[in-house]
Specification:
Strand order of the largest sheet: 1-2-3-4-6-5
Structural class: alpha/beta
Largest sheet: 6 strands, mixed
Distance between the termini: 23 Å
Length: 113
Amino acid sequence: MGLRRILVSGNVRDTGRILENIVFLDLKRRAGTVYVGQSTGGEIDFVTNGANGPAYYQVAESVRDPKTLERELSSLRNLDDNYPKTLITLDDERPTNHNGIQQIYALDWLMQL
């Protein structure tokens, strides 16, 4: 992250991409192998395969705008299984459930083991 800061001017705002990188690195630490997924609703940011099966993750800076929330949830909604689906954001709100898709504040997620 520090090298990126040196190479790119301070005018570029890409908090969402930085958050994706942080989540990716933490998923690598937790699960080992991390994939990018695809569903009929679009790309899934990250997929891991653990002992209990796959887990799906979408990452967004904010989903307070209803259009952004719908876009982020659409790819997870189109998955036809009952494995965990998580939306990680920087919206500092209590965890929310969107019909089986758990939305969680990124800092709270990062503090979980």
